Amino acid sequence: MLIEFDDSLITGNDTIDEQHKELIKKISDLVTSCENGDGKVKAIKMLDYLEEYTNFHFSAEEELQKKANYPDYDKHHAKHEEFKQTIKELFDYLDELEGPTKDFADKVQVQVVDWLFKHIKSADRSVAEYIHLNNNPDIV
Question: Residues 57-106: pLDDT tens digits?
């Protein structure tokens, strides 16, 4: 399954876009590992790195929102917390398995890839637009 950053995911904020590229690459690596039948230990390590990078990215993105006084910060933060919980649930699910299965890969597709792409195209794009307008008050 091909998972990659494309123009439909550009928010217009270089910091956010670069981090999204890295995040999507890590997700793609995880899914590829699952599809290749790599072992449980490798999948756990990849999921662990994905969790770490997600936490880093969400913190950076939320800091940008705070600096810009983004009005929907609380709602956006709550969405991030939901995603973090999903990652924890995937850890638990993988822990119960002998290794990553097709069902696990399907869960990653729906709960991580689909969720993230939708989130980027709506919520993150709104944040980037708000920050851009906030930083350029002369734009009407």
Answer: 999 999 999 999 999 999 999 999 999 999 999 989 888 888 788 888 88
Distance CA 105, CA 7 (A): 25
Q: Which CATH number fits domain 14-132: 1.20.120.50, 3.40.50.12230, 2.60.40.10, 2.40.50.140?
A: 1.20.120.50
Domain ranges of the chain: 14-132
Structure tokens at 121: 């195209």
Phi, psi (deg, nearest 5) at residue 5: -75, 130
Following DSSP, what letter does each residue of the chain receive, concatenated?
------GGG--S-HHHHHHHHHHHHHHHHHHHHHHTT--HHHHHHHHHHHHHHHHHHHHHHHHHHHHTT-TTHHHHHHHHHHHHHHHHHHHHHHHHSSS--HHHHHHHIIIIIIHHHHHIIIIIHHHHHHHHHHH-TT--
Q: How confident is the model at residue 140 (pLDDT cuts 50, 70, 90)?
A: low
User: At 34, which amino acid appears?
Assistant: C
